[in-house]
Amino acid sequence: MYQMRRKRFMTGKWILHMVMLGICSAEDYREKRISSWKLLLYAGLVFLYGIWEYSTQGEEHGRWILSSILGSIPGAFLLITGKISQEAVGYGDGLAVLLIGISMGFWEALGILFTASVGACFVSLYLILRRKCGRKRQIAFLPFLFLGMAGAGLWTGALKIGKL
Length: 164
Known about the structure:
elongated, single chain, membrane, aspartic-type endopeptidase activity, transmembrane helix, Prepilin_IV_endopep_pep
């Protein structure tokens, strides 16, 4: 019963995060920043979804709270890194990872962050080797989080695709 309920929640969460990451990624790619109101909307939707999820958890409240607290660690780490590095890692990126972690849990957030980081590393390396930019050029990170979330959805089966 718990696994079936968890799978339904994961699909709903995945859709919520994909939509909001898609909206925020487009702005981050174009302008290298994210509007505060979009991040607040994202946080509000995650909060409302979390309340609904918490109210339907039955006897799993403790597990849900622990998962949310542990899930916030990667995002908190990114926010601290952004503060220490004078925003070499943007606060919007840290807040997005924080919201993903609170909603999805520690391991899911870490996997999405790892996938996004590897993707950003490869693109940065490609741009440097092709002499399209220097080491100091900033690239938008939220599009990579968007792709990491898409990969996580495909990997965990949140996105149902028929047999190919």
